[in-house]
Amino acid sequence: MTIFNSYDYHSNVDYYDSLKDEHNFQILDSLRMDRLYSPRFHPINGRSIIYLRRQYHMQDLRKSTTSLNWLELETNKTVQLTRPIWGKHDRQFYWIKSDTILFLSNRASSKINQIFQLKLPNDLSKMKTKFIKPIQITHYPLSVQDLLVNRQGTRLAFGCKVYPNLTIEQTYARYKKENDNNHSFYEFNKLSIRYWDHYLTGPRYHPFVVSIKQKSDGTYKFSSEPVDLLFGIDSSSPERSVDDAGMHWSFSASGNSFTYVRRRDETSALVWTTNYDIYTVDLNEPEHESVCITCDNLGIDQNPSYSPTDDEILIYLSISKSYDGPDQVKIEWYNVSNSQRITILDHLDKTIFYVTWSPTGRSFFLEIGKEARKVIYRVDNLFNETLLVRLTHNGTSQNINVHPINDQIFVFTHESLLKPTNIYLHSLNRSIRPLTEHNQALLSKVKMCTTIERFSFIGARNDTVWGWYIAPIDSAPTPVPVLFYIHGGPQTSYYDGWDYYWNLQTYASQGYAIIVIDFHGSESYGQNFTDSILGEFGSLPYEDLNLGLTYALKQYPNIDPDRVVAYGASYGGYMVYWIAGQPKMSHRFKTLISHNGIFDLRAFAYSVDEVVFMNYYFGINAPWSNPDVYERFNPVNRVANWSQPMLIIVGANDYRVPETQGISAFTALQLH
User: Fold this and answer.
1) Above 80 in pLDDT, residue 457?
2) Residue 156 covered by a domain
């Protein structure tokens, strides 16, 4: 069904309330969960929030829909504002007035994303209609990919994928001509030719800025011609469409200035670096000239955010190294008027993900990785690290939105290995309470693991290394088999969070114990630990995994050492192939599973979408300049030692680790 139908639509509450008995948690249960995003306060009084809710078709899970939802904080009353229609998705919304929301949606008759407006009644709790019909604001022939609205509701920025030197309409005309001519070939004359999951065939994501105003009937319209800030430049901002344009763009307090991030990738020479720069634009100047404020830094500058009270001040996250290894993320404070730049909290040896201003502009909130947990800190003085206060302690807390009147209050999303995402309220007395319970009926009908433990052991270089133990469900017969999960990255961690894809609860509910090791190179344990993998791609992590498995088998006597399976994706998949070639390690496993893993490092260096990836970890620009660096830890060189059965999973549109890597490994296994 492609339309809303009362016989076809069920919330997961209706579906699970209809089930009589409990059952062990399955991957289908994970897929049936509502996904909650982007909670935002009422912009004036902060007495309610609006958030996004994605729901899935209960019967076959092949359809989904995302709608805007309203919640009153005092009563927890909820209202679904936009009608859930299969295949229709609302995203990136801005509550700019008490009665006005602007958002992106593919509800247009063209079925592509456009800007819509929602006009809210004075009292949503007494809404007379079941849903509010959105008003379409834009009617472009191309999809609008990102949206950001200034605080005053006088300007907005949107993203569109265009040819660098063509307008939206001209780009569409070229698309149409190519389609009419059955155009099926492309010419490339520089790197990169593809990114993540798509080819870079010419069009790029460009930010457009336009003035808007409210008509007499309350609806908004464009009051100027949109300006393409990157017109004529073969570059993107953002690199690809994201769920939050605020990660890459920002309006100043007055709405008269704009900042954006772009990668300087106009020529092939720039693929050797990770140089992302921040540009500012004075929107009152007719030329809309972009001024680079970070071009002196050859590393990554990202997440710019203007002060909510001062047009001259912005903060951003910065990495100083350009290619020879991930550096620690620093918070930079920048004064636009005099180009003064100050690194704040300089001695903070933590993994910083995001910074959110308070409405007063005198403090901000940090989302930080701390020993495999994503936690929230508050900073009341930008230049005094002693005033850094930790507000959450477990799980994954993110997506902060601060109350418009009282900056001690904020909403955020929270999840853990034991619980899916919900929206929470942090109050004045530091109390935290959940606001949403969309998945409660589902959770009441499934049996899941209720026990997770952190453990540590002495790993490579005699360093302390941490891991997770996720227990099987209580009814599992002992001794239990073990899933030895190897995370990807490699410079990430297996965080205490809910995963809708590789959900470890699905294995625990099948009777597996799960062991996860945050090996050398993992983030959130200090920069030295993260950097330790450089030049040690297959050594220190391998040693940690071996020692960690030995420790876990001794520490948890209920697990069966003769029934262990290793499973990894991306770098984890590489490590599975590497383990397969080490007989002393490989024989510890009954079977191995590699999901989009790297099989041949040298071939990977020539085919990976991001050439700079190999510079990060091996320290060389050209693969031919020092081939021995790749061969030292190359799984293809040890295929003769392979002996254990293996499952290989590939994705045809994975251009980070191309499918030929998995096909090559499969060929090796079949030849054996």
Assistant:
1) yes
2) no
**Quick check: helix, strand or coil at residue 188?**
coil
Q: Whole-model pTM?
A: 0.95
Q: Which range of residues forms the domain containing residue 538?
A: 448-671
For residue 461, the Cα-to-chain-centroid distance in whole angstroms is: 32
Backbone Cα Rg of the chain: 26
Total domain count, the chain: 2
Q: The domain that contains 637 carries what CATH number?
A: 3.40.50.1820
Partnered with residue 594 across adjacent β-strands are 568, 648
Are 598 and 574 spatial neighbours (Cβ–Cβ below 8 Å)? yes
CB 502 within 8 A of CB 494: no
Mean pLDDT on 219-230: 97
The two counts, helices (H) then strands (E), for the chain are 13, 40
Alpha helices by DSSP H, 139-268: 168-180
Distance of CA 556 to the CA centre of its chain: 33
Q: Is 535 a domain residue?
A: yes
Residue 320 near residue 333, CB atoms below 8 Å = no
Instruction: Please calculate the CA angle 500-501-507 and round it to the nearest 5 degrees.
Output: 95
Residue 442 lies in a domain: no
Amino acid at 412: F
CA dist 70 to 67, 202, 402, 463, Å? 10, 40, 17, 48
Is the pLDDT reported for residue 275 higher than 90? no
DSSP SS3 for 114: strand
